[in-house]
Amino acid sequence: MAFELPELPYSHDALSPYMSAETFEYHHDKHHQAYVTNGNKLLEGSGLEEKSLEDVVRESFGSNAGLFNNAAQHYNHLHFWNWMKPNGGGNIPGALERKIIEDIGSVEKLRADFINAGVTQFGSGWAWLALENGKLTVTKTPNGENPLVHGGVPLLGVDVWEHSYYIDYRNARPKYLEAFFDEMVNWEYVEQLFEAAS
């Protein structure tokens, strides 16, 4: 199935001052659009044209690098825009919070582990909260890779490619990650993914 760039679920300046309109203009309108455009070209003749996006990501991993890179980044970004909302962060819905405490120890430990995963991802990549074998785990991946290709379900991810934060934070990746977790996360969307995966 062809890839399509979605509209943002909020205006370009809705997450200011934590993420600027200029960042969204580059990140959503240009970078994500490039993954869609290139992914559609590479999808043609791949034998995966009729598959779901998730299956394209899983089946191209390790066998079709160009298609995988664009399809995985398209998948990651479809969720990334929804993992954020104006006035985000704050309280985590009950069942998800209980699972975080059960598997990770506390919300504070999740915050520390998640930010650390993003800070210590060398070069480009993502930090994740994923559900794997029924257990929540914090992990990181290089480039466009995501937990789907390792048997997990991504519940929350943050993009640590420089185009995601450099306009607003320059080289202060930790500050970006703190602002993401504390001010931008859409926990209701994380909860929807958690319930669907449970």
What do you see in this structure?
The longest helix is centred in the N-terminal third of the chain and has 23 residues, at 21-43. The protein is globular, with a radius of gyration of 16 Å. It has a 3-stranded antiparallel sheet. It is mainly α. The protein is 51% helix and 12% strand. The mean pLDDT is 98. It has 8 helices and 3 strands; from the N terminus they run αααααβββααα. It has 2 domains: 21-82, Fe,Mn superoxide dismutase (SOD) domain (Helix Hairpins), CATH 1.10.287; 94-197, Iron/manganese superoxide dismutase, C-terminal domain (minor pseudopilin epsh fold), CATH 3.55.40.
Summarize the SSE layout with pairings.
Blueprint: H1 21-43, H2 53-60, H3 65-82, H4 94-104, H5 107-120, E1 125-132, E2 135-142, E3 153-159, H6 166-169, H7 173-184, H8 187-197
Antiparallel strand pairs: 1-2, 1-3
Which features characterize this protein?
198 residues, mainly alpha, Helix Hairpins, minor pseudopilin epsh fold, 2 domains, three-stranded antiparallel β-sheet, 8 helices, 51% helix, globular
Short structural description:
This protein is mainly alpha-helical and 198 residues long. It has helices spanning 21-43, 53-60, 65-82, 94-104, 107-120, 166-169, 173-184, 187-197; strands at residues 125-132, 135-142, 153-159. It has two domains: 21-82, Fe,Mn superoxide dismutase (SOD) domain (Helix Hairpins); 94-197, minor pseudopilin epsh fold (3-Layer(bab) Sandwich), CATH 3.55.40.20.
